[in-house]
Design goal:
CATH class of the largest domain: Alpha Beta
Order of helices and strands: EHEHEHEHHEHEHEEEHEEHEHEHH
Mean pLDDT: 90
Radius of gyration: 19 Å
Number of strands: 13
Oligomer: single chain
Helix content: 25-40%
Largest sheet: 7 strands, mixed
Structural class: alpha/beta
CATH architecture of the largest domain: 3-Layer(aba) Sandwich
Distance between the termini: 28 Å
Low-confidence stretches: 2-28
CATH topology of the largest domain: Rossmann fold
CATH superfamily of the largest domain: Thiamin diphosphate (ThDP)-binding fold, Pyr/PP domains
Length: about 325
């Protein structure tokens, strides 16, 4: 776990299309989280003959030249998400390291049986990269929203789940995942943080006495604003599975834990309970509430609707820690 000093952040500047405002960097270029995935994947495909990419139309325009140049390792199956996962499993069985990519709602939920059987049941490794998070494109409606993806994966065992909050974390996590042979889910979504942190471990950003707040991935910016003058410890977690029970226990100023996640509220409640099984503790899970509120609007509207904006987080955390 990395220990850093507290840093000030500018006020959150939500835009109507928050996905278009996901700004970070790769090298000297300023790009969004999804473009970082594209840039890193393109480099891996050029330099590593073991790397393969399977698409289901989404993002195929960004790999059009490689689809033509490397048809054996870059495959677009069209709008067939179940086939996307089955093809990835087949490539893995042939000795390649497949990256399967589309929107998270299509990758995990629509193709769930293939995730469960073709990959998990057969113990086949692959890197799944889902974009658009929980509600990054509200205009797409419920079909494009996936706040339950991590909770679904929790019904399986042995998965690594990365929830990066910065393009540099996307780059590092993807490279490490492709170098391995296990089953990895890289969840890309939400507004990026101001700066990158350790992409695999949990980082302590500040110390406090009245409780411990864990911000997962892109929830850090709003969480840091919400707790900036509260007497709490703040941890940042860009990798949430496996759950870092050691880091949590090592940073308990008081056995009150708030976990702020960018998907279904309480998704990691069981992990917190297990990590603190021998301690008399309290926990509060903050995240997406009712996943189907029948609303469109903007991502910022949904943040407020679920209490995930700085003001909403502040009210819940302040009340919970007793300040």
């Amino acid at each position: 776990m990395t220990d850093t000093t507290t840093h000030d952040l500018p006020a959150v500047d939500h835009q109507d299309e928050r996905g278009a405002a996901q700004r970070g960097w790769t090298g000297d270029a300023v790009i969004d989280l999804r473009s970082q995935f594209v840039a890193t994947t393109r480099e891996l495909l050029e330099t590593d003959e073991r790397t393969a990419l399977v698409l289901a139309e989404i993002s195929s325009d960004r790999f059009a030249d490689l689809i033509d140049a490397r048809p054996d390792r870059v495959i677009n199956v069209g709008i067939r998400e179940q086939l996307l996962l089955s093809t990835a499993a087949g490539l893995a069985l042939s000795g390649l390291r497949p990256i399967a990519h589309t929107f998270g709602a299509f990758l995990i939920e629509r193709a769930w049986e293939q995730v469960k059987l073709d990959l998990d049941h057969q113990k086949v490794g692959a890197v799944l990269v889902g974009s658009y998070g929980s509600y990054d494109w509200p205009a797409g409606g419920r079909t494009h929203q996936s706040p339950g993806d991590v909770a679904l994966l929790d019904t399986l065992r042995g998965w690594t789940v990365h929830v990066p909050g910065h393009p540099a974390e996307v780059d590092a996590q993807l490279r490490a995942a492709v170098a391995g042979d296990d089953r990895v889910y890289l969840r890309i979504g939400g507004e990026p943080n101001a700066e990158p942190h350790d992409p695999t471990g949990w980082t302590r950003l500040r110390d406090g006495r009245r409780g411990t707040v864990v911000a997962v991935g892109p929830m850090l910016r709003a969480t840091e604003l919400a707790v900036r003058d509260l007497d709490v410890t703040l941890l940042y977690a860009p990798t949430i599975r496996p759950f870092d029970a050691g880091a949590l226990r090592a940073n308990l100023g008081r056995p009150r834990v708030v976990l702020v996640e960018p998907y279904l509220a309480g998704t990691s409640a069981a992990q917190v309970a297990e990590a603190l099984l021998d301690l008399d503790h309290r926990q509060l899970g903050l995240g997406v509430g009712d996943p189907d509120r029948h609303r469109y609007g903007t991502p910022a509207d949904h943040d407020r609707l679920h209490g995930l904006d700085p003001a909403g987080l502040r009210r819940r955390i302040e009340s919970f820690v007793g300040e």
